[in-house]
UniProtKB/TrEMBL annotation:
Keywords: Glycosidase, Hydrolase. This is Glucosidase, beta, acid 3 (gene/pseudogene). One of its GO terms (molecular function) is glycosylceramidase activity. Gene3D superfamilies: Glycosidases (3.20.20.80). It comes from Poecilia mexicana. Belongs to the glycosyl hydrolase 1 family. GO terms for biological process: carbohydrate metabolic process; glycosylceramide catabolic process. It holds the Pfam family Glyco_hydro_1. It comes from the Eukaryota. The active site is at E373 (nucleophile). One of its GO terms (cellular component) is membrane. PROSITE patterns: GLYCOSYL_HYDROL_F1_1, GLYCOSYL_HYDROL_F1_2.
Length: 466
């Protein structure tokens, strides 16, 4: 059912696993700052130590081998490599760390997929405006070039930015992620814009300078729920669901895969609200300038993070201020038949993934797709025999198989989130997404395989050898 060269992976990110937050010359990131502020994260927890992968990398590698992964997705910490965010100061200890990780993976026949940015902006860059400032794109491009130059001889799959939608919205509109801004209605669009500009600059750098010798592929990882009308017979619900997909996935995928610009529907919805609210400031959804690198075509594959689904109905927003919610003018609800796994937002809907894959095939010109994240959280009492998660992986992977076989979607890989329990952002260590359990009360941070890890290993070994 799966192509022979299908990528069977698991994913992690630097801040969520590494720890060593100020070890060997690492600079602070916005997540270090955010977590050290009272009341930001569940139980005031932080990633100072996390899984201590900075020191315990061999243990992670053992887990990777035990699963039989063909690929491992990790992210680089910008501030570990470039403590002040610029290439003026390179932290060689950071370079050594990632060199070792990459070399060890390759020695075990595991291909690295490397994200340059997974939520952890160098604090020094935040201090000069962060993603709000247009200059961040050049700083990111310099960082990206440094990484391509340093690691690109061995890394063939790159993600520039992970989930720009989440970063923009949760970090700058809702404020529950770093840097914790709640600047409703404007900043998230500006941040998203600069992230797209940064991504495109890095893709062009790779394309013009590194591709010829390194021959890899570069994309950005886009998150989306599957969004479908609450009442398919009600045209307002149908258009609301379409609009929601446009605002969530189209926001970034449209410019990159379809037109080089934001979806018209998104722009017009935002402008309508601006007018209605008597807003006369700068365009809230910026325009790309001719000085920006072209955005269209700046992805060599489609990287999708899928977790859950929602039903959508039309609905205004009662708040009398400009906000993304108001612009969207739709309401998301859960279908009561969907089971909820540990965290409240995560309804278990494996077949939403198949529908979303088909949508991507149809709307974004049949791209090659890697599912770069998908997973199931456990909260409360620890269950090593995590039967529900086993079922979840089996049925999700079956949906991926159907998408490939029946819908002819070009899916090339699947990465489970996550290799091991880790620091789950605002939820701290309370939500466990791992295929391996990490005992955070044990000074050795012992990793123990969950039943779902064994199950995933079985699936991998079955299809790897077909
Ligand atoms: C994604 C994110 C991951 C992980 C996951 C589970 O949005 O990229 O870092 O935390 O969600 O919530």
């Amino acid at each position: 059912m799966f192509p022979r060269d299908f990528a069977w992976g698991a994913a992690t990110s630097a801040y969520q696993i590494e720890g060593g937050w100020q070890t060997d010359g690492k600079g602070p990131s916005i997540w270090d700052t955010f977590c050290h502020e009272e009341g930001r994260v569940f139980g005031n927890q932080n990633g100072d130590v996390a899984c201590n992968s900075y020191e315990l990398w061999e243990k992670d590698l053992e887990c990777i081998q035990q699963l039989g992964l063909t690929h491992y997705r990790l992210s680089l910490s910008w501030a570990r490599l470039l403590p002040d965010g610029t290439t003026r100061n390179v932290n060689q200890r950071g370079v050594q760390y990632y060199n070792r990780v990459i070399d060890d993976l390759l020695a075990c026949n595991v291909s690295p997929m490397v994200s340059l940015y997974h939520f952890d902006l160098a604090q020094a860059i935040q201090d000069v405006g962060g993603w709000k400032s247009p200059g961040v794109a050049t700083l990111f491009d310099n960082y990206a070039k440094f990484c391509f130059q340093t690691f690109g001889d061995r890394v063939k799959l790159w993600i520039t930015i992970n989930e720009p939608q989440v970063c923009a919205k949760l970090g700058h509109e809702v404020g529950i992620h770093a840097p914790g801004l709640k600047e409703k209605g404007t900043t998230a669009y500006l941040v998203g814009h600069n992230m797209l500009r940064a991504h495109a600059m890095a893709w062009h750098s790779y394309n013009s300078t590194y591709r010829i010798t390194q021959n890899g592929a570069v994309s950005l990882a886009l998150n989306s729920d599957w969004l479908e009308p609450l009442d398919p017979g009600r045209s307002e619900d149908v258009t609301s669901a379409e609009r929601d997909l446009i605002f969530t996935l189209g926001w970034f995928a449209w410019p990159v895969f379809v037109t080089g610009d934001y979806p018209e529907l998104m722009r017009s919805s935002i402008e309508t609200q601006s007018k209605m609210m008597g807003y006369s400031g700068e365009l809230r959804l910026p325009r790309f300038s001719i000085d920006d690198p072209p955005i269209l075509g700046t992805a060599d594959f489609f990287a999708l993070n899928y977790y859950t689904s929602r039903k959508v109905k039309s609905g205004g927003c009662s708040e009398q201020i400009l906000s993304m919610k108001r612009d969207l003018a739709a309401e998301e609800v859960l279908d009561p038949s969907w089971p909820i796994c540990g965290v409240s937002w995560l309804a278990v809907v494996p077949n939403g993934l198949r529908k979303l894959l088909k949508y991507i095939k149809d709307v974004f010109n049949n791209p090659t797709i890697y599912i770069t994240e998908n997973g199931f959280a456990q909260v409360g009492p620890l269950q090593i025999e995590d039967v529900e998660r086993c079922k979840f992986y089996k049925s999700t992977i079956l949906e991926v198989a159907k998408a490939i076989e029946e819908d002819e979607v070009n899916v090339r890989g699947y990465f489970a989130w996550s290799l091991m329990d880790n620091f789950e952002w605002a939820d701290g260590f309370s939500a466990r997404f791992g295929l391996f359990h990490v005992d955070f009360s044990d000074p050795e941070l012992r990793r123990t395989i969950y039943q779902s890890g064994r199950e995933y290993a079985k699936i991998i070994s079955k299809y790897k050898s077909v």
